[in-house]
Amino acid sequence: MMNSPEQRRGRVSASLLLIVLLTAPAATKAVGDAGNLLRKMAPKTPATHGFVEVRQSRLLRRPSISTGTLEYRGPGQLVKSVLKPVERRFEVDGTVARLSQGTGPVRNFDLGNVPELSAIFAGISGIMGGDEAAIRKVFNLSLEEHGSRWTLRMVPLDTKVLRRIRALEVRGNANGAQCIDVLEASGATSTMVLVDDHVAIPTTDPTAWLESKCTSP
Fold it and tell me: Residue 151's CB: how many other CB atoms inside 10 A?
């Protein structure tokens, strides 16, 4: 029995609709207002967070794990103090950076001579200070929201920086930022998890631990 042209067109239309439904992205994510989120995150200064930082790279036999504190003192002023495994202090004030290790001497250098490092600290300082304008001087900024969770993605504007750093991503929920990811062009990643002082530190493979800390609702 031959089908009528109308029946054949109906089957074709149904097939096309099925293809569209199966291939369309799930509508669970939405573009949000990055500026509004950053304004909500703006802290009173100074603000200090504990952190656990996990670095993963093809050059490392196992992930490198460090702990310490991150202190925001105001626009462009940031202090990163590593407590374990080796004491190290990195202080940024504008374009001036100071680096010291343990009781060793303090080394001063111009952060502008290391553009990728300058970009990373500008991004972290901007996030901790809720400073949208400062971030947009260095990055393209976008926000993706998924329920109570959100991800701020910062892509460097400078092509030289982009050759080293693909993006910074900040993941969080209604309580604020939880994790700051530095995604390097080489494929290496550093994830800084903002924590309290009593967190259980992972000692071997931190993948599951990072997943639980960075994706909790």
Answer: 18
Split into its structural domains, the chain has a count of 1
For residues 35 and 102, what is the distance between their CA atoms, to the nearest angstrom?
Answer: 39
CA distance 42 to 58: 36
Q: Would the pTM of this model clear 0.90, i.e. be above it? A: no
Domain with 200, as residue range(s), is: 29-214
Are 168 and 139 in contact, with CB atoms under 8 Å apart?
yes
Tell me the average pLDDT of the chain.
81
CATH code, 99 = 2.50.20.10
Per-residue confidence (pLDDT) for residue 181, from 0 to 100: 95
Asked whether residue 115 is assigned to any structural domain, the reply reads yes
- Give domain status of residue 9, yes or no: no
First to last CA, the chain: 57
The predicted-structure confidence for 83-124, as pLDDT tens digits, reads as follows 988 999 999 998 899 999 988 899 998 988 999 999 999 999
